[in-house]
Structures are given as C-alpha cells and as structure tokens.
Amino acid sequence: MYKEDNEKVRTAVLRAVDGISDEILNTKPSPEEWSPMQILDHLQLMESVVAGNVQRQLTKSESERARKKPIQLTVSRLIKVDAPKYVVPTNDFVSLEEMKKRLEASAALLDAVYKEASPEALEAKSLPHPVFGKVPLIQWFPFVGLHEKRHLKQLEKTLEKLHASPNK
C-alpha cells in the first residue's frame, strides 16, 4: 500500500529539518532557489491538490481510463519540471511547528480520499499529469510519496548550502 512508503519519506523529510531554527529554514540559498520551508510548503500544497483533484474526479461520471505510467521516474532530478502556479510555495515566514501541522493535514486528507474511494473507481478513472499524461487515480497516491522523495534530495542539498544539516 502507498501509505507506508509515503510515511517513510515524510519521516525522512521531517528528520532532515529537525533541530534547525525557523530562521534558517526560511532562508533561501540564492534568490532563484526555494528555502527549506518553501520546499516543505510545496510538498503540502502538492499533497492537498492531488487529494482534492482525485476527490473531484471520483465524483465525475465521465473519466477516462488510463494505462499505468512509470511514475517511479518522478524521483529523478535529471528531468526538470517547473511547479504549476497552484503549488508554488509562499514567501511568507512559516514556523516548523506550523508547517508540520499543514503536512499532517495534507497527509490526512490524502488518506481520507483513498479510504473513501472504491478500488474499481481508482483504477477506472484518471487525471492528467504535466509529464506523464493521463495517470490512473490509483497511481496518484504513491506519486505523492515519490514526488516527496524527489524533493527530499533537493531539501538535503539546500540544507547543505545553508550549512544547516543536522548530520554535520
């Protein structure tokens, strides 16, 4: 099931920022890069958007069936994808405590959508993805974890640039 894999990645993400001050977490390594907090914000935005989109698609009578896609490629940072506007993080200062609440809420929302849906509907319906095209709804749940795994690498590199890695 998707949930255990997603939880492992989320634990690694939270471990990476544990013990780092809110000031450092809200610092960008350069003007064009996201701060560690913006990366976390992007993750909770993406998870919430995926949950909402899947939930809406499940209510539609018409939805195209799609073949499973190689979503595991999401982890590769060789393929650069610009974040759609609706998942671009805020520039606002956010505490880690507040962001943890947002991440918890987005994970709970995704899980609620999964539990409410029938496996048949998740297999029979799809949503478009900017890289993969139409992706079966059932694949959007593990996609969230793979997307987070991709950004965990970004988070670790960003923390290194800020010399804030707790592993140092």
Task: Explain how this protein is built.
There is one protein chain. With 168 residues, the protein is mainly alpha-helical. Helix content is 57%, strand content 5%. The protein contains 6 helices and 2 strands; from the N terminus they run αααααββα. The chain has helices spanning 2-17, 22-25, 36-59, 96-116, 119-124, 137-161; strands at residues 126-129, 133-136. The chain has a two-stranded antiparallel sheet with strand order 1-2. β1 (126-129) and β2 (133-136) form a beta hairpin. α1 runs parallel beside α6 (137-161). The termini are far apart. The model has no long low-confidence stretch (mean pLDDT 93).
Index terms:
two-stranded antiparallel ribbon; 2 strands; 6 helices; mainly alpha; elongated; about 170 residues
Order of helices and strands: HHHHHEEH
Q: How much beta, percentage-wise?
A: under 5%
Number of helices: 6
Rounded Rg? 16 Å
Mean pLDDT, as a whole number? 93
Give the tally of β-strands: 2
Q: What is the SS-derived class?
A: mainly alpha
The geometry reads as elongated
The percent of residues in helical segments reads 55-70%
- Cα distance spanning the termini: 34 Å
Instruction: Please outline the major beta sheet.
Output: 2 strands, antiparallel
Spatial order of strands in the largest sheet: 1-2
Poorly predicted regions are: none
Short structural summary:
With 168 residues, this protein is mainly alpha-helical. Helix content is 57%, strand content 5%.
